[in-house]
TrEMBL record:
Protein name per Swiss-Prot or TrEMBL: Glutamyl-tRNA reductase
Lineage, top ranks: Bacteria, Bacillati, Bacillota, Clostridia, Eubacteriales
Pathway recorded for this protein: Porphyrin-containing compound metabolism; protoporphyrin-IX biosynthesis; 5-aminolevulinate from L-glutamyl-tRNA(Glu): step 1/2
Any matching Pfam family: GlutR_N
Family: Belongs to the glutamyl-tRNA reductase family.
Lineage: superkingdom: Bacteria
Name of the coding gene: hemA
Binding site for substrate: 49-52, 109, 114-116, 120
Length: 439
């Protein structure tokens, strides 16, 4: 069983490419059904956030699995082969597992050590599990990844500063206005990100906060929490007449603030400055609104310049985190090596035994009657030849099993000898739990 990864993130692709690869909940359910129906894929987990879309899969054939994941992402997103190669990445086995551990630890985030990604990884895994899309290997892998993420944060304190994309969005507004004390902020979206954003706005002393959400009840709950005011989603455009800052973070799969529903109202401001900070993917705010006098529109990629990259403490913590990840990676790969190597070794020995028995039968048929002593000598000689021929491949496979090349050697031996490992044996080894997994 092999672990594969295919995806893209904020480092490899701009927001207009990333938003093509995002999944709404209904699309996610359909994706799991379609992918699991393929005979190339044994299990699948999709991590889907504003900064990344990543597909983690288990397969029995690496090349077929990689080709399927690439074809699926291209078909779903509409990316061409050239665009896929430009913006997306694919990894297998050791590298795919190491990447997931770094993601769950916050080391691959836009903001080093940010806290939200661990919850997003957990949520992505839970959704896949609920859809029946995972298998024993992915269950163990993601439980281990969540454990690693928690361990890194506990032992390194990498997330001790309250930094996030929400923080960067408020920092951008602060940079534009200098002070937020006399400003009115409109937060569109009442989820976790919206709540965190509102908290940072309040800390910067905004004069008033307005909350809008498709579920008016959720908007009221969040507005009450911060002594703000809730407005119905349909009334949102009217609030743009007086707002100074709009931070939008909904889960909509299309723009909710557009020329056709907000353009005329924004023109009624007659050039008074208003800043839209869109931290949703897909984007909430139509970029062309910036053509209106006084209107500026920023998307999530614009926040990079406002993320303080001089967090020396976080950088030091990241070095400690890499050591933790390395140790946990070795432990997980030692467990996973049994899935790569043990069935191949068993199949290789069975292959040798089959050849030995067939040749002995043929030899005895040709020799006719032989003594019991002669029969034993011939059998021992045949067994010795097979054992000596297989000794080095078996020992080397065991030796290299837990390295980042172990799966490649196992796959090579399997193909060279045309072996068919016992999949039930793989499932047997996979059923053993590995130590120190998060729940």
């Amino acid at each position: 069983m092999y672990v594969l990864l295919a995806g893209l993130n904020h480092r490899t692709a701009p927001v207009e490419i990333r938003e093509k690869c995002t999944f709404s909940d209904p699309e996610l359910a359909d994706a799991y059904k379609q992918i699991k129906s393929s005979h190339f894929i044994e299990g699948i987990v999709i991590i889907n956030t504003c900064n990344r879309t990543e597909l983690y899969a288990t397969v029995r054939d690496i090349q077929e699995g990689q080709e399927f994941l690439k074809a699926y992402l291209m078909e779903y997103s509409g990316l061409s082969a050239e665009e896929f190669d430009m913006y997306c990445y694919q990894s297998d086995c050791y590298d795919a597992i190491a990447h997931l551990f770094r993601v769950s630890s916050g080391l691959d985030s836009m903001i080093l050590g940010e806290t939200q990604i661990l919850g997003q990884v957990k949520e992505g895994y839970q959704k896949a599990h609920e859809q029946g899309a995972t298998d024993t290997v992915l269950n163990s892998l993601f439980q281990k990844a969540l454990y690693v993420g928690k361990k890194v944060r506990t032992e390194t304190k990498i997330d001790q500063h309250p930094v996030s994309v929400s923080f960067a969005a408020v920092d951008l507004a602060l940079d534009r206005f200098g002070s937020l004390r006399d400003k009115t902020a409109l937060v569109v979206g009442a989820g976790e990100t919206g709540e965190l954003t509102t908290r940072y706005l309040m800390e910067q002393g905004v004069n008033s906060v307005i909350v809008s959400n498709r579920s008016y009840e959720k908007a009221v709950q969040m507005a009450d929490l911060f002594k703000g005011r809730a407005v119905r989603f349909d009334d949102l455009p009217n609030e743009l007449l007086n707002a100074d800052i709009v931070i939008s973070c909904t889960a909509a799969n299309h723009c909710v603030i557009r020329e056709d529903n907000c353009g005329d109202i924004l023109r009624q401001r007659r050039g008074r400055n208003i800043i839209f900070i869109d931290i949703a993917v897909p984007r909430d705010v139509e970029a062309d609104l910036s053509r209106i006098e006084g209107v500026s529109v920023h998307d999530i990629d614009d926040l990079q310049d406002f993320i303080n990259v001089s967090y020396q403490e976080r950088r030091q913590a990241a070095l400690l985190a890499e050591d933790i990840i390395s140790g946990q990676l070795d432990e997980f790969n030692q467990w996973l090596a049994t899935l790569y190597v043990v069935p191949v070794i068993t199949a290789l020995k069975s292959y040798g035994e089959t050849i030995k028995q067939n040749e002995l039968k043929r030899a005895f048929n040709r020799l006719g009657k032989v003594s019991e002593r002669e029969q034993m000598i011939i059998q021992n000689m045949a067994g010795s030849i097979v054992n000596q021929l297989l000794r080095s491949p078996v020992l080397n496979l065991k030796k290299i099993a837990s390295s980042n090349q172990g799966h490649l050697y196992a796959e090579m031996v399997k193909k060279l000898f045309e072996l068919e490992p016992d999949h039930k044996k793989e499932e047997y080894y996979a059923s053993f739990k590995i130590g120190n997994q998060g729940k």
